[in-house]
Design a protein that fits this description.
Elements (H helix, E strand, L loop, with lengths): L9 H11 L8 H4 L7 E8 L3 E10 L4 E10 L8 E5 L6 H6 L3 H10 L7 E5 L6 H5 L7 H18 L8 E6 L1 H12 L6 E5 L38 E7 L5 H14 L4 E5 L5 H16 L10
Parallel strand pairs: 4-5, 4-6, 6-7, 7-8, 8-9
Antiparallel strand pairs: 1-2, 2-3, 3-5
């Protein structure tokens, strides 16, 4: 279950996350099976009349190790042409979003009521042993960026035939998953049309879709840094939400105010709740409507 973390500064956040990183990297038996570069392993985990859940493992060059994601695939008579990448929190596993949020059941119900469009909902494994490492000056372009925006998206596109067109892709997440999603949206605005940040936070030094691109500061071996825009594009549609008793409310409010000051349109929602599965459950349906809503239920495709 997510824990309430009273983060007041990023150094404290990094230290706290690093301290507990070791307890969140437990691997199930399937994760320990060998996998070679280029190999993609697909397992049908479950199936109902309207939805299938696949688990896909692949070799990540970015992580130099096998990684996996869950894919919720609606059964339709027409090809599916959209994908929504949904990222879990720091202490969680992809399976936790099914166990605690019942994403599969909620999405299936909304689909049956005609509230959302068919899309592959992708829940990647975004666990890392040390948060400070992937955000330090030695690693100015965190490896989760390429893992999610390039590798996971690439495998999804190839396996499910999702076109790599901006309006076909969305990304969002809870807690660290929201932070990650916003960072991906900053570096790859030309790849993701919408981004949601739930109970997350942002680095105070981040820039958001500036008119002039900058590549200042430390760069990695490929010339990428904190301000590098890999796939240029306009600001994505943004949805921010946080519970009123969440320890992240101050950071989320500051993010909301920063975007307002910059004139970047976004939806901002607060409601009673903390850094808990209960609050996240309450915002899941609005989140799905925002990204995948039909013309009468949410944001229209452009």
């Amino acid at each position: 279950m997510p824990r309430l973390v009273p983060w007041r500064s990023f150094p404290l956040a990094f230290a706290f996350l690093s301290l507990f990183g070791c307890r969140r990297l437990h691997k199930e038996a399937f994760e320990k099976a060998p996998l070679v570069r280029g190999q993609v392993e697909v397992v049908r985990v479950s199936e109902t009349g309207g939805l299938a859940i696949d688990r896909i493992r692949f070799w990540s060059d970015e992580m130099a190790a096998p990684r996996f994601f869950l894919a919720l695939v609606p059964k339709t008579s027409s090809p599916i042409v959209e994908a929504f990448i949904l990222n879990h929190g720091w202490w969680d596993r992809p399976e936790d979003l099914l166990k605690h949020l019942r994403v599969d059941e909620v999405y299936s119900g909304m689909r049956a009521r005609g509230e959302v469009r068919p899309a592959v909902i992708v829940i990647p494994d975004v666990r890392f042993s040390n948060f400070y490492r992937v955000n330090s000056r030695r690693f100015p372009f965190p490896n989760y960026l390429s893992l999610v925006a390039v590798e996971v998206a690439g495998v999804v596109s190839q396996h499910y035939g999702i076109p790599m067109e901006r309006e076909r892709w969305a990304i969002g997440g809870f807690s660290f998953g929201g932070y990650l999603s916003l960072d991906v949206g900053r570096h790859y605005p030309g790849r993701f049309a919408s981004v949601s940040v739930i109970s997350g936070f942002a680095d105070s030094s981040w820039t958001f879709w500036p008119a002039e691109l900058s590549n200042e500061g430390p760069l990695d071996a490929l010339g990428r840094g904190k301000y590098t825009v890999v796939a240029p594009g306009p600001p994505p549609h943004l949805f921010l939400a946080c519970g009123t008793t969440d320890g992240m409310l101050t950071q989320m409010t500051e993010l909301h105010q920063t975007l307002e000051r910059l004139g970047i349109p976004h939806d901002w929602s607060t409601a009673p709740g903390g850094h808990t599965w209960a609050y996240w459950s309450s915002v899941l349906q609005p989140m799905l409507r925002f990204h995948l809503g039909t013309p009468t239920e949410g944001r229209k495709m452009e």
